[in-house]
Amino acid sequence: MTMRGHDDVPDGVLRERLRHVHWIGGGSGAGKSTAARRLAGRHGMRLYDTDAAMPDHARRLPPDRAPHLGRFAAMDMDERWVTRSPAEMLDTFHWYRGEGFELIVEDLLALPADRPLLAEGFRLLRPWSGRCSPT
After folding, report:
1. Whole-angstrom Cα distance, residue 106 to residue 53?
2. Are the C-beta atoms of 10 and 81 separated by less than 8 Å?
3. Which pLDDT score is estimated for 13?
4. What are the average pLDDT values for consecutive 10-residue runs of the chain, which has 135 residues?
5. How far is the C-alpha of 37 from the C-alpha of 58, rounded, in Å?
6. Interior/surface letters 91-116, b for 16+ CB within 10 angstroms, e for the rest
7. Which end of the chain is more exposed for a tag (fewer CB within 10 A), N or C?
8. Is there a contact between 68 and 94 (Cβ–Cβ < 8 Å)?
């Protein structure tokens, strides 16, 4: 798995630059945001909410780098949520396919590393976040 903008950075260097980042990923509605807010507050951690970053990331991603997002954005609400099967929705959902994950990394690298940072959201799936976190 490659991440545009970070392909030339060896995994070890990327992990080192993000060593202060702790990751909470998982399914929607699992309680990640609640747990993350409590943990960050209790331990003085900076919080990065991938859900809150989605609109900005959608604007920053050109169609050639996010073809699934481009197709999704062009659909009306019925096409998105009614006429497609659940399997098709899952198979083509841009964030689940990793589109834009490199922007999460870019955002995290731009934040100060002066204290621990807790990144949370359903977009932090192992195939992508695994390159950035300790094994």
Report:
1. 12
2. no
3. 86
4. 56 88 89 95 97 95 92 94 93 87 94 96 72 60
5. 24
6. eeebbebbbbbbbbbbbbbeeeeeee
7. C
8. yes
